[in-house]
């Protein structure tokens, strides 16, 4: 069941499935029903974190399912993903080991709001 949001969440959401995904290969052990739940948790977490830091989340929200599918089907970082808009990478960053750093987006010494090869081997093309 899809969660509906009418306001930006102000409390960190419970994300039991997302909590188990440290690297994209962790997605492959989930069932289709669990993947469906995971995309809801990812969406909720993205709204919460970007709501706290500020920034653009429309592009990221638009590619939640696509991001999960790409990382599920391809062997990243050996298979390279290139994003056409930096803000699309927020779900990608969450699924590639940077989830706990998302609160540092757009802050000094924090995560870049775009792909950064210096930040992660999963970012194969840098912009910004």
What's the CATH architecture name of the domain at 18-104? 3-Layer(aba) Sandwich
- Taken from the alpha-carbon principal axes, the silhouette is globular
Average residue pLDDT = 93
Give the SSE order as H and E letters: HHHH
Q: Considering the protein shown, what is the CATH homologous superfamily of the domain at 18-104? A: Thiamin diphosphate (ThDP)-binding fold, Pyr/PP domains
SS-derived structural category: mainly alpha
Profile the largest sheet: none
CA(first)-CA(last) distance:
37 Å
Note the beta-strand portion.
under 5%
CATH class of the domain at 18-104: Alpha Beta
**What is the number of strand segments?**
0
Query: What multimeric state do the chains show?
Result: single chain
CATH domain fold name of the domain at 18-104: Rossmann fold
Number of DSSP helical runs: 4
Low-confidence stretches: none
Helix content: 25-40%
Descriptors for this entry?
mainly alpha; 128 residues; 37% helix; Rossmann fold
Secondary-structure map:
Layout: H1 32-53, H2 58-62, H3 64-73, H4 89-98
Helix pairs in contact: 3-4
Outline the structure in words:
This protein is 37% helix and 0% strand. The protein has 128 residues and is an all-alpha fold. It has a domain at 18-104: Rossmann fold, CATH 3.40.50. It is globular, with a radius of gyration of 14 Å. 26% of the residues are buried. The model has no long low-confidence stretch (mean pLDDT 93).
Short description:
The protein has 128 residues and is mainly alpha-helical. The protein contains four helices and no strands.
